[in-house]
Amino acid sequence: MKEILSVTNLTKIFKLSKKQQQLRNLNKPIITAADNVSFTSYEGEVFGLLGPNGAGKTTVMRMLATLINPVSGDATVGGYSIVKEPQRVRENIGFLTNELKLDDFFTPNYTFDFFAEMHGIPKDAANARKKMLFEKFGIDKFAEVKIANLSLGMKQKISLVTSIVHDPNIIIFDEPTNGLDVITAKVVTNFLIELKKQGKSVILSTHIFELAEKLCDRVGIIIDGKMTACSSIKEMSGEKTLEEAFFELYYKTTGEAI
Amino acid sequence: MKNNILTIMKKELTRLFGDRRLVFSGIILQGLLLYVMYTLMGTFMSGMVSVDDDYKYKVSVVNMPEQISTILDEWYTVVEITHVQGADTESAKQQVANSAIDLLIVFSEGFDEAVTAFELSSGETAPQIQIWHNAGHIESLEADFMFKDFFREYERSIVKKFDVNAVLGAYEYDLNEGTDFAASLLMSMIPMMIIMVVYQGCMAIAPESISGEKERGTLGTLLATPAKRSHMALAKILSITVFGVLGSIVTFLGMMLSLPNMMGDGVNISFDFSPGEYLMIFAVTVSTVLVFVALLSIMSAYAKSIKEATSYASPFMLISIFCGMSAMFTGGAMSEVYYYLIPIFNSAQSLTSIFNGDISVVNITVTALTNVMFALIFTGILAKMFSSEKIVFDK
Ligand SMILES: Nc1ncnc2c1ncn2[C@@H]1O[C@H](COP(=O)(O)OP(=O)(O)OP(=O)(O)O)[C@@H](O)[C@H]1O
Ligand SMILES: [Mg+2]
């Protein structure tokens, strides 16, 4: 199996202001959001990053998408280093996270065209892809409505679609079904399965274990910024459900029973 | 991928021009403001300093002498004379004070005879004319000037030792062909006005375009694309500059249109720039807009919100006004070329030199190049800031 993503000792430390420290009830001025995280993901697989709120999933993904820089460690994404060749990395991934917003002012149509142009997709190819994706996600009826006037779910779907205008081989989705109703979530889940069938590599973060069980080949569990376990779903859960396995692991790591 | 700059610019301009509020506050408002301001100032000033052409001065006179009365009879279209008894002098003064009449002239008794009899060498007091006026009232002031002038002339015509400016008409001795003093004073303010208003225009847009995107979380989305940070920075700055330049053109038009209103009919301004001079004004203005935009972009990138950006930008408004006024203090444009290596200050100096007609092409070229250089450096800084997660994502 070919490695598509290889993460080695990725570490991210955030400085906290006095106010942030108070809010978090911490008395140190830093927080280690990712602590020597290492894992590997292979071509064509769906890799799940699991962990509780604040574990560091988004932080790791943002580093992989080169939006923030690690303080130490590195990762290669599709063969490119996130530290040395961030632009190459960005060319080869589709990144979705809820903190990246689309401009309310534009229509889905304009937005798609813009990002297609940013990725240098020829007009014809972009139009064909737009038609296909808009139909699949039911955006076509709203193609000319300003994003400001669309529902949250529709916005989320447009974000998803624009993140993959360039048909990337590596897809990094941070909680892609978060905030979606069951029907829309199902559309997204089915789409991820379809991507996998096409041979795309997907990195997915979620705290919905069922979703991970359904979609992921392998998962890594992050607790408190540390990668505490990383293996195939089968190995991870054994006879139990993934959720039960997680609680056990959580207890072992933090000493907190749930 | 090569043409990301154009792609981003296209999007930025669509965004900015699609926002009617921005078009108004960034482009139209500036010109409109200047036009209204100048026109109001003009109306206000001319209303203050001039008397209606068909105004008839109301003048009361005590002890009107025969000789003067015959001359003043010819002034009946301009002056309405009321004869007052010596005993009513005080009440006539009161009338001047409350502007019921414009002037009170009191001659000493037997004025004509006394004047004929008077010998300077005798050491006696000369016959008196006392003119009471009200300086708070423009008609009274004018009448005062007019009559003092008249009496001086009258005195001279009696004594007659020499003539001053009697060969030609009085106004023909003014050799000024171009701009009047008042007009040139107002014109010296123009560079400041331009710079101030241009800054204001840029200030309306840059925070919106950069801090606004940060605030809304759309800047990150752009950063997640493969676009180079330097391209993004350049595209942003160029788009805002396009906007700013349009604003400047409207400002300039507003100013040109309102100047005649401001100066009034009586004042003479000469405003015939050659195409080359227009080109220079344009080059200086565009380069100024570039510096402003680049500077404001950095502030906007640093700020967490539009509000914060605007508050950072306000102090620089003062600096820009100060630079704009510098030429008023330096008494015209400086000639030494090194002064033109200081951005914004050089813009004010250059504009002044063009308006005054003592143009140095070298200095203006240095100005444009210096400003573009600074803008490029600022663009580099902005690109660096775009690569900094602290700047882009810190809320
Ligand atoms: N810019 C920042 N400054 C300070 N602290 C931060 C910053 N970004 C993230 N953190 C902190 O780092 C930790 C990890 O956050 P992260 O968003 O990666 O968690 P997560 O696993 O994605 O959580 P969730 O499931 O809630 O999305 C949290 O404690 C978070 O508060
Ligand atoms: Mg998260």
Quick structural overview:
Chain A contains ten helices and ten strands. Chain A is of the alpha/beta class and 258 residues long.
What this model shows, in words?
The complex is a heterodimer of chains A (258) and B (395). Chain A contains ten helices and ten strands. Chain A is α/β, with parallel strands linked by helices. Chain A has one domain: Rossmann fold, CATH 3.40.50.300. Chain A has a six-stranded mixed sheet, sandwiched between helices. In chain A, strands 2-1-4-5 form a four-stranded antiparallel sheet, covered by helices on one side. In chain A, a hairpin with a 2-residue loop joins strand 9 and strand 10. The radius of gyration of chain A is 19 Å and the shape is globular. The N and C termini of chain A lie far apart (38 Å). The model of chain A has no long low-confidence stretch (mean pLDDT 92). With 395 residues, chain B is mainly α. Chain B has two domains: 257 residues, no CATH class; 117 residues, D-Maltodextrin-Binding Protein, domain 2 (3-Layer(aba) Sandwich). Helix content of chain B is 66%, strand content 5%. Chain B is built from 15 helices and four strands. Chain B is elongated. Chains A and B meet through helix 3 and helix 4 of A and helix 1, helix 9 and helix 15 of B. The structure holds adenosine-5'-triphosphate and magnesium ion. The site of adenosine-5'-triphosphate (ATP) has 13 residues of chain A, from strand 2 and helix 2. Magnesium ion binds next to helix 2 of chain A.
